[in-house]
Fold this sequence. Notes:
By secondary structure, the chain is of the alpha+beta class. The chain has helices at residues 21-27, 41-47, 57-63, 72-82, 86-105, 122-128, 130-140, 149-153, 234-241, 268-271, 311-335, and strands at residues 3-11, 16-17, 38-39, 65-70, 109-110, 117-118, 163-167, 170-177, 185-188, 200-201, 210-214, 248-254, 259-265, 274-278, 284-287, 291-294, 338-346. The protein folds into two domains: 3-50 and 182-346, no CATH class; 68-177, no CATH class. The model has no long low-confidence stretch (mean pLDDT 94).
Amino acid sequence: MSHFPVLVIVKKDEVEVNVLSELERIEYGGKEQYVNQYKSDKVEELLNPYTEVPNSEEDLENFFELDLEEDEWMTDLIQSYAKGKILKVQEMFAEKRKQRVEWNKDSKVMDSETKQFRTPTDEEIDRELKDFDILVDLFIERKWDIQNDEHFDMLSEFANSDTFMWEDGKFYNRYYSNPIAKWDWYVFGGRWHSIGENGFISDLKALKEYEVVPFYKTLSWMSFPKTPYNFDDEEDFVKEVIKDNTVIKSSDYDRETETRSNVVYYTKEELLEPTKRKAIQMNTYLSEDEGWLEYGEMGWFGISSLDSMDDEEREQVIKDTDTIVDNMLEKYIESGDYVGVIVDCHI
Length: 347
């Protein structure tokens, strides 16, 4: 999982303060990162094409692709049933039930009396497999009907996807995916509510401002043996970490042995080198005309594609993207009708 900030550019009258923010603050125990500071139908409209999770049939139709994957076990089961091979059907179900029982015995349940984890009893496992057994009985008694929607939906007990189908004598699991998905949920402001006015940028000129910082501040937290979050203040972090032969610049990593070779470290001088960067750091900009414009594709644990590049390539990508972003911002600044809303996206 990762959280990353997206600056969405919309017209001033397309965003408003969330009047329910205080109720959300109470609901989430004062955890500001979960509170929606603003609301905007336009922002939601611009974000929607990049969702990883469909929220409606319209989403499925407009943004998602359907992949069909045959489930050979299910195909064999239904074909055997249609041919009257009940003994084979019984054997197939018996093997499946044996697997389910073994899985349950390897699991743990909370004992309501002792409040301790324990292995489920045979009776509890039977209850867990109640729907399984009902479906099996329908098959064995030859009462299951593929034309009966309720009967067909009961196959979810075995299917590997939420939706499935029978077509041309084969059983298919249906998988939907958005090829340009970027997020699965988001919050207006979220972890970046402290920027601007609770995550609201009224003057887009602020996004064109730059600052000069020590080079180490441009590196991913994964680069350091200890992150700044491990220290009470930055001075302690700099004193212990920002020095020669501490922060890895490049290396060859063997995933099997989890070892590094050909390690090259930054010097203290390199880490403290004054470096120009955006004063307000955004991973992504989103607007109606330009669409999704990102510095690097975000992966898990806050790591983006930028972190896989060497310093020279990363610097060039950031410089080129800065130019594109600044040109885009200038267009909206000249219009005078636009503002920025920071959305904390999760992936």
